[in-house]
Amino acid sequence: ILLANGVYAAAYPLHDGDYEGENVEFNDRKLLYEEWACYGVFYKYQPIDLVRKYFGEKIGLYFAWLGVYTQMLIPASIVGIIVFLYGCATVDENIPSMEMCDQRQNITMCPLCDKTCSYWKMSSACATARASHLFDNPATVFFSVFMALWGKQGLSGKNIGDDPRFMFRLLGSSLHRERHTVKLTWRDRFPAYLTNLVSIIFMIAVTFAIVLGVIIYRISMAAALAMNSSPSVRSNIRVTVTATAVIINLVVIILLDEVYGCIARWLTKIEVPKTEKSFEERLIFKAFLLKFVNSYTPIFYVAFFKGRFVGRPGDYVYIFRSFRMEECAPGGCLMELCIQLSIIMLGKQLIQNNLFEIGIPKMKKLIRYLKLKRQSPPDHEECVKRKQRYEVDYNLEPFAGLTPEYMEMIIQFGFVTLFVASFPLAPLFALLNNIIEIRLDAKKFVTELRRPVAVRAKDIGIWYNILRGIGKLAVIINAFVISFTSDFIPRLVYLYMYSKNGTMHGFVNHTLSSFNVSDFQNGTAPNDPLDLGYEVQICRYKDYREPPWSENKYDISKDFWAVLAARLAFVIVFQNLVMFMSDFVDWVIPDIPKDISQQIHKEKVLMVELFMREEQDKQQLLETWMEKERQKDEPPCNHHNPKACPDSLSSPAPSHTYHGGVL
Predict the structure, then answer these.
(1) Of 228-232, 548-552, 581-585, which gets the smallest average pLDDT?
(2) Which residue, 362, 372, 390, 366, is CA-closest to 448?
């Protein structure tokens, strides 16, 4: 209340002392700085016990989870590197890419846009086809299964707080401070709930609108570059458009992340949650929902929508009746998905997670220092030396909670698991980032932030449920990426159903349909039909449709339905395979090792015995006390009060008879 009313400017625990200097006394802060917050100790284990002691259980659990996550990335990175090297080793043996690069095939492709684009040779996409094989090869399927199991079992299968090896579990539940004392009814909260719903829908609509704008940019830029007179520019249209569009997406994502974070906090405040825990959980849910949509919408578009609703030559689909929907390259959209994912993931890690975390605190600290120096007398340095600990800590950045730290790691976890089939090197780059991230966060907590109030916690909270949700979603998304985005299923169908000699020869020609250029709609044919040096009568496009000389020309062919059935069957088989293997791994490798499980059982038995012994001791003490109290209340036993005496004392002694006599 005093803070809210402005009586106090801030309230915070003090740091133990300085962390560097010649005459600095040894303290926990200095020890944390030397053994934890320096980049030179990246190879060492984190001193989690000391972190917990200095910052509290909640922050200790965050760094424990981050350490486990980083360790789990090591096997995923190794397998990803092996998959990538396998693609590099077999790229020269890949028959489909060899056919696409073979100029003797003389395959003429239909224009990529109306009017300004002309016909082009398939061999011009040779580099893209060869690069696609690095990520779209048989090993990718194995890697997708591995990462699906990794995502379900590695981090999201068990709560870190429930693992006895971390020794963070507390007796009793967490303590939650009351945030508000005003009790509001559902009717009072309804306007806030309605505002939240409308605002979230509006923010999601803004994200979709921006993605649509980038799509229009890609279509327009492709048409503009096609008009360029330079052959090198026209041959690299796809790469240029994709790279520039992804950079635009990256900038927009970084900016909207900051905006959405502020909006999520404002929407949570107007709900007036009752407790600190309720406030934090609602804030996390809103922020994650908005940032999830913001970060992954461009990737979802490339993976599942681009090239799906383009129509065909002579009957294309248009946006606003002006912009023709863009198509995938002859080798598929997987390579473009790889470019999209890699640039957004690496860009967010480099700019948002590292430069912002390093640069912004340094800049704020410099501004505070210059402001203090300008307001201080000439002997500023002497004043600084005479300052008390609370004055020095006041100049540090206030602790804003763990939500931003968790959020950036959860978004990264989504990049690593959701679309890993298109970018096997994602775990490697995440590992390299996290090695720096651990020490960066440690240095920020030790040197740049005020010491936070220690908070008790028994687990990582709602983040555990988010991790489990992403792990389950990753299985479905990777199944659809392999089935519908890559050419893995069409290659299998061709190999076992249509190949005449049991090889992949002829696969590229099988995936291309024919179009008679005389069937172009008015105003859509190329302005320069002789750009290749000869007149084109039949051009090819990627689709499964009947040829123009067929009775049902341009209708979907039976090959399309065969491939579609195989794709859907693969999705079902993939999901069930992952579920079966997940259950098998749970059965073979328990979450808790057998020796630890036995130790826990023994501790529980000892606890029960101790509890029963204490209860028996309490019962005996209670009975003794009650007996003493009863004796105090009873009158004394003497000849004046024979009724108070026991029967053995007040009654005459019994006689004993032996052989008829009396003794």
Answers:
(1) 228-232
(2) 362
73 pLDDT higher than 90: yes
For tokens 């309230």, name the residue: 11
Sequence spans of domains, the chain: 2-168+188-374+395-589, 590-620
Q: Which residues, 6+ apart, have CB-to-CB distance to 24 below 8 Å?
A: 17, 18, 30
Which residues, listed in sequence order, are joined to residue 538 by a DSSP beta bridge? 516
Q: With contact defined as beta carbons under 8 Å apart, do 550 and 544 qualify?
A: no
Q: Can you tell me whether residue 418 is helix, strand or coil?
A: helix
**What is the DSSP code (8-state) at residue 549?**
T
CB 313 within 8 A of CB 519: yes
Say how far apart CA 135 and CA 478 lie, in whole Å. Answer: 13
Q: What is the pLDDT of residues 594-632, one digit of tens each?
A: 777 788 888 888 888 888 888 888 888 888 888 777 777
What pLDDT score was predicted for residue 493?
Answer: 93
367-376, 445-454, 491-500: least confident range: 367-376
For every residue of 164-227, which 3-state class applies, written as one string? HHHCCCCCCCCCCCECCCCCCCHHHHHHHHHHHHHHHHHHHHHHHHHHHHHHHHHHHHHHHHHC
Query: Average of pLDDT values for 532-547?
Result: 89
Distances (CA, A) of 80 to 300, 474, 563, 598: 22, 16, 28, 36
DSSP 9: S
Amino acid code (one letter) for 415: F
* H helix or E strand, kind and range, residue 539: strand 538-542
In this structure, what is the dihedral angle of CA atoms 146, 151, 157, 163, given to the nearest 10 degrees?
100
As a whole number of angstroms, the distance between CA 660 and CA 300 comes to: 113
User: Which tokens hold the place of 235?
Assistant: 């041959």
First to last CA, the chain: 90
260 has a pLDDT exceeding 80: yes
Of 222, 279, 274, the C-alpha closest to 245 is 222
